[in-house]
Amino acid sequence: MSEPVPLNPQLSRARALATQLEQMLELEFEALRTQDLEQFEQLQPVKSQLLVDLTLLAPPASELQVNPDWQDFRAVMLACRDSHRRNEVLIERKLEAIRGALQSLRVQEVTSSVEVYNRLGHIARFSRTQGYNEA
Q1: At what angle do helices 9-33 and 71-105 cross, to 10 degrees?
Q2: CA end-to-end distance (rounded Å), the chain
Q3: Is residue 3 a part of any domain in this protein?
Q4: CATH number, residue 67
Q5: What is the pLDDT of residue 5?
Q6: Rounded Cα distance, 61 and 80, in Å
């Protein structure tokens, strides 16, 4: 059974844009996951324009929460928010890994501490002298 066609053209356009944004965020995640930075960069202007268009079309948040006509749109936008946060976490993890790799390549004193990931994927600090003492 198909969903009813909204009478409000603004709502219809906003739903279509929200769906496009949702798809764009999935493409962004895939590009980040596969480390395809060229694809990721190409998606950014499109995503930015979608956000601008949605900002112009969508009513204030107070209306979104109480107007039943906009609930489907609101649900898609909440899913987009979650996808954006997921992408942000992935970017942050990759940046931390890069920072860690760069830090390990720098020449440090023997007594300085080294950052490594523990079993939970968090950064843990260890002194280099601990490794020498254990050997």
Answers
A1: 20
A2: 69
A3: no
A4: 1.20.58
A5: 52
A6: 15
Q: How many domains does the chain have?
A: 1
> What does the alpha-carbon distance between residue 77 and residue 61 come to, in Å, rounded to a whole number?
11
CA–CA distance, 128 with 71 (Å, rounded to integer): 56
Q: Is residue 2 part of a domain?
A: no
Give CA–CA dist 28/44, Å, rounded. 8
Local confidence band at 16 (pLDDT 50, 70, 90 cut-offs): very high
Q: CA dihedral defined by 69, 57, 20, 24, rounded to 10 degrees?
A: -130
Q: Is the residue at 19 inside a domain?
A: yes
Alpha carbons 117 and 97: distance in angstroms, whole number: 9
pLDDT at 115: 63
Q: Is residue 119 part of a domain?
A: yes
Q: What tokens appear for 132 in the block?
A: 């020498």
Domain range for 13: 9-134
